[in-house]
Design a protein that fits this description.
The protein has 302 residues and is mostly helical. 73% of the residues lie in helices and 3% in strands.
């Protein structure tokens, strides 16, 4: 079934024409779910294992001492975060394998090898970029509040404009790096800089793709909140999202409370769909480029 498409064209200096089918690319994650339900199921299982490992880490390590404030226990939070990044790297490689190397031997598109190691390194790089953007925003906001203390009431629009600028800057970097994962997977080496160059003349079509993807992700998150709240209310449970997502539990009974189990049952399928929606578009675009003429392919991969 062919999804209706919006096309973005750009003619290069050599006269060739580059076309990104915006709508079709943005919905490629949903199409992949239809074509690869077993892989999607494997990603879902991997996420459940991620949650269980995180619970085990939390229950077997001591919580931060009382009165620690915002002090972070790296064993608890860092260990669980690393496991989540490993699972995300495996899921990314499975999606890229389905779209870019469909004939490669694997179990539900999953493998353990150097491709997954490289993807983990790339995911860590993306986390560092996002953390740097958050740090820049925090420093800037702090400076604005200091100015407020000297000059009087700070207009909320100033902070809003600063937040918007930081968000747009981070979004543009993420769009420019959207081919880094699939390109790293295909070339068997880390390729963030080459991926950046590949989209130097194709930024706006890809920005359109991820604008639609962003709307889809927002709808998924809203669906999660709505469905969990309704289900919890119908079952007589607490609909507090903050409570079920906190890591403050210390016993098995707290870790596997009815509210947490309900949230897990609802959030895991939605999270799986979110991974597909976010990851597939970059690989879909790279697949389109790889399927182009030999001359175009040489230009793309130089």
């Amino acid at each position: 079934m062919r999804v209706g498409c919006v096309h973005a064209r750009r003619t290069g200096g050599n006269g060739d024409d580059m076309r990104i089918e915006i709508m079709r690319t943005a919905l490629s994650g949903l199409d992949l779910l239809r074509r690869e339900p077993a892989m999607a199921g494997a990603i879902l299982v991997a996420q459940v294992l991620d949650v269980l490992i995180g619970i085990a880490i939390n229950l077997t390590t001591a919580p931060p001492p009382a009165g620690a404030g915002i002090a972070i226990d790296l064993t608890r939070t860092g260990g669980g975060a690393l496991v989540s990044l490993v699972v995300l790297s495996l899921a990314n490689c499975a999606i890229f394998r389905a779209l870019l190397r469909p004939d490669e031997r694997s179990l539900f598109r999953f493998r353990l090898g150097m491709a997954e190691v490289r993807m983990f390194a790339l995911v860590l790089l993306m986390v560092v970029i996002i953390a740097a953007a958050v740090a820049v925003y925090a420093v800037g906001a702090n400076l604005l509040f200091k100015v407020d203390a000297v000059w009087g009431a700070m207009d909320a629009m100033i902070l809003f404009a600063f937040l918007t600028a930081c968000g747009l800057a981070l979004a543009s970097v993420m769009v420019r790096l959207s081919l880094a994962g699939p390109k790293t997977f295909v070339d068997r080496r880390l390729r963030p800089l080459l991926a950046w160059r590949m989209l130097s003349r194709r930024f706006w079509p890809m920005a359109g793709v991820f604008a639609i993807v962003g709307v889809l992700v927002a709808l998924l998150y809203a669906t999660l909140l709505l469905v969990f709240s309704l289900a919890a209310s119908l079952l007589g449970l607490s609909p507090d999202i903050g409570g079920v997502t906190s890591q403050s539990y210390t016993t098995l009974a707290e870790a596997f409370s009815a509210e947490r189990l309900l949230f897990l049952a609802i959030s895991t399928p939605i999270s799986t769909l979110g991974i597909l929606v976010l990851t597939a578009p970059g690989a879909s675009v790279l697949a389109q480029l790889m399927a182009d003429t030999p001359d175009r392919r040489a230009e793309v991969f130089d």
